[in-house]
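cron nightly-structures :: item 1 of 1
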Amino acid sequence: MSAKTHTKTLAAHRHAIRHAELDWRADDGDLVAPFSTDYDDVYFSRQDGREESRFVFIDNNDLPRRFADWHHRRPFTIGETGFGTGLNMLCAWACFDEHAPAGARLHLVSTEKHPLTREALERAWRIWPQLSRQATELIAQWPPAVAGVHRLQLDTRVTLDLHFGDAADCLSRLDGQVDAWFLDGFAPSKNPDMWQPALFEALAAASRPDATFATFTCAGFVRRGLAAAGFRWHKVPGFGRKREMLRGERDETSQPAPRAATPWFHPPPAGSASHVAVIGGGIAGTSVAAALARRGSQVTLIDRAGVASGASGNPQAALYVKLAIETNLQSRFYLAALLYTQRWLARLDPERHWWSDCGLLQLTGEARDVERQSRFLHNYDLPPAVVSASDPARATALAGIDIAQSALHYRHGGWVDPVALCRHLAATPRVETRQAELGALRQTEAGWEMQLDRETLNVDQVVLAAGHASRAWLDGLPLQAIRGQISTLALPRPTPLSQVLCAEGYVMPAREGKLTFGATFSPNDDDSELRQSDHQRNLDELGRTAPSIAAQFADATSALCGGRASVRAASPDKTPYAGPLPDVARWRRDYAALSKDAKRAIASSCDHYPGLHPGLWVNTAHGSRGMVSAPLCAELIASRIHDEPMPLERELVDHLHPGRRIIADLIRGR
């Protein structure tokens, strides 16, 4: 990505997403429906919105027949401009349930510049009780108004990616391809800013060769724009009082190269994924194993010490990220990961048996931190449902104990029991767990041959997700060991602490009469033995973070009832590695010209790039934030393996790519 494009992309994410401005109007039949005051238009036909959606988008994309005939491993993908109330997408879901074979999957991708509030969505869906099951799931997972991609797992077969932002901008950064388009989003006369050449070009770039489209409009400039972008269009009878509408299909057999400027990030071709091995039984490994199994892969999950035996074995972990003051790619990823993980956990454990979204307070330290937090809130402009400022009085009320500092309040932050989570994921159907050590890994014509202790295992693909233990298989990618130790106190009496507190360290709400706090941070240290000196460091930090709790102990050292030390892994830039494993020596040779000219166009043929180890993937280097980052990275890898749209914008997918360090080092002349 060029510096100019990068700056433009970041600028687009500094602007808050504004909710739709609505009026609720009744027609002659007393049907009260939402009306957009922004665009002076209705969201759906008051005559019969559901029937209009079926006629215009479902039938004119021939979806009943295409769903019935769908037997591919990848999902059928529908793209939409203008999610609105979600009527079109939920009608497509209902049609899929009715016609598709049991093994088929559906992936929905929709853009929305001004999303409805949850309350407005609930009110709108009272009109359509026939789709109450689908609407209930949508409303339960409805994300806050934050720019970017929000992945919702609507059921075991249906996924929805909501892209909040301008349609053309969102679709130009979509990493994935679409089988059928719903071109909605208010009439061109009401919403001319959307129906522009940039939108049609983005549609074409994100279309599969046989993609179709349907739209209610027949406007001349829409026909010309679609034709110029490479679509054939046909006028057909419209719905109700509308005489004509358009439908059509892609007119080209070849697709434009989506990564011509960065061939090293071109995704590998989809291969067989019937049997995938995942190395590592922590949160990175179990989350990717579950994501693959949900898509139909048979997964062998391998860990030399068993599930949750390493850095994911702590009794509690914070659902927490510390975002940079200025918006950057890393912070955008971590924000998306936090929001995704909160939805993901709520679906895995709706009763909150082993996790809690109790809230989290990021405390200020020195006076300058207050000013930094103010700048952060201004730069991100996030809704209070995500994060808000708290003065000491409000922080005290939220936490349940005296707080002398200002704080950032992450309303749905909290904690999770990593051991219970990992075991839950490892128990996913089609996941088989083996306690063994990987001794050798060899590529074969059919996939990969693995030597596990005294056993040989042959699989189609392999995901390396063993934290710092993955370093032996990463072909020279840098990975840093970081030791962390937590401490546990037996409480003499219950503590009223109700939120996770984070400062230089963290302290969790008590669980089963024990208080977990820490953790030390020791780079380049791979020793997992407990140290009394680290316990003392944790106790000292507890005294600074929660002095009212520390004051309960006349001798806190004697009250220590446990602790745990483990080794985490981090990359040099502190962003995880999530994606295909590059052939490091080949990349350094093939892209050596970048060391002399960072803007050099690299001529590559399809059989030459991207220089990856076929079917070998990496999900590691999550550092101390893996409980938040690993699940979304797992979803990214599983999506790529199964040829689905990515759950992040293209530039964020590239930011996570394990090969980014090689390219960065070449450009810097290293």
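cron nightly-structures :: done
Residues 1-14 have pLDDT under 50 and may be disordered.
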